[in-house]
Amino acid sequence: MDENEPIIDLQSDVYFMGEALRQAAKAYAAGEVPVGAVVVRAGRIIARGFNQVEMLNDATAHAEMLAITAAENAAGNWRLNDATLYVTKEPCPMCAGAAVHVRFQRVVFGVGDPKGGAAGGAMNLLQFPTLNHRCEITAGVLEEETRMLLKSFFQEQRMAKKQGLN
Fold it and tell me: What is the set of active-site residues?
């Protein structure tokens, strides 16, 4: 390992992803797709968010977008180049684009999304060569926990639909 390479503290990643999972549980309880996010700067959480698309009737109310807005307000600046975004599911193109625009140093996610993910799943906007910024990516943190939460949610949704409750 190069001595100038940043040291990634995996214990911290697990801790902060646990906080994002708590946000995802709030989304689950509200009947939203259970995705949660936290923004960390200087070792402290400065913002939290969970999916609120249905609650707010807003297609852009993804966990990441809400956490980014809260982080910009907390930082007093739209540039978050010294911050890390932790999110339970691989960001979609909209959220990955926002992560690049605010210049996150790093994006950490739990479960990948091979069909729609934009951090290496279906595409990689976080490291797109022609954009003005690239984010480091750490994937698979608490992957099994995040996968199980999503799986459980969608199983419940299918059951409710079958029973005519949805």
Answer: 64
